[in-house]
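In this section we turn from sequence analysis to structure. A common task in structural bioinformatics is to predict how a protein folds when a small molecule is present, because the ligand can shape the pocket around it. The inputs are simple: the amino acid sequence and a SMILES string for the ligand, here thiamine diphosphate. Study the lines below before reading on.
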Amino acid sequence: MVMILMDVEKAKLVEMYRKLLELRKFEEKCWDLFSQNLIPGTIHLYLGQEAVAVGVCSNLNEDDYVQSTHRGHGHCLAKGAQMDKMFAELMGKATGYCKGKGGSMHITDANVGLLGACGVVGSGIVMAPGAGLSAKLRGTNQVVVCFFGDGASNTGNFHEGINIAAAWDLPVVFVCENNLYAMGTKQTDVMKVKNIADRASAYGIPGVICDGNDAVDVYKKAYEAVTRAREGKGPTLIECKTYRHRGHSRFDQGKYRPEEEVNEWLRMDPIIRMRERLTSMGILTEEEADVIVNEVDEEIEVAAKFAIESPFPDPKTALEDVWVEERESE
Ligand SMILES: Cc1ncc(C[n+]2csc(CCOP(=O)(O)OP(=O)(O)O)c2C)c(N)n1
Ligand SMILES: [Mg+2]
């Protein structure tokens, strides 16, 4: 374990522990707010997969881009989106990211390079190369991270997006979060290959497998992929093996998953593992770790209070911001 951590700075590890907690507690609060009927529509919780977003995004600069998915709260927070505006958006409030008109699957924040969540499975895989091409043409050294699931890796977009990004050496890092299920469909029932990363060879790019419940493993492998992209050497396909703690969306209890499987993955909880590492390495004492937990709890309460106390949008604004005015062609 010492070997694994020696080359990652202590401050970075502590920062990652705090981020992991933010993602976890944000989702727990979402569940709480939903249970009180304060969040309309559906939500797909990121609980259990936190090490992926945190491990990857800890390598990014503010002006790098992230393309998210329907299960995107973790990506947004890890890239620097504001909790208060996220809660407000989920609750349909006027202070939310889309003024309450978009909800969970439309959270976007251009100020921190967040290109947006999207409910259309696999769609991000063809949009990310566009952002990569833009960065390449402008010569900005920006990198694009494209998150998607195992289910999305079976769509045609996977082939189209990765193929063109590879052919043009675009600065895109494709991160597949393999949580073993696409809704109720088991990955092994619909794929002949064991590892999604194995498909990378078909595009002539590196394919890398990570322990997706270990933020440090993800961080280090993503570091190599981000560096490669920034140096103009093209994309990498990273597969993070992970698991969602809950059902697919808020209405799914996940009964199709065997109890032993769920329990096995719960034992590999990414937050507990990170805390155990930091305390056993002497980087944090138990008391210091508790202080961070309490600080994050407080941060969550403040952000949720902001959203709860925010007004709903005025019905008169319903048609604002939903249509782009026609422009003269240039
Ligand atoms: C194009 C399209 N087809 C189907 C759906 C319905 N749908 C929503 S999420 C989902 C499963 C996605 O699975 P995966 O890519 O593994 O992501 P996960 O939910 O596991 O994070 C499906 C089929 C959709 N939203 N878009
Ligand atoms: Mg999945």
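Residues 2-305 form a domain with the Rossmann fold fold (CATH 3.40.50.970). As an exercise, try to locate the residues that line the thiamine diphosphate site and compare them with your own expectations.
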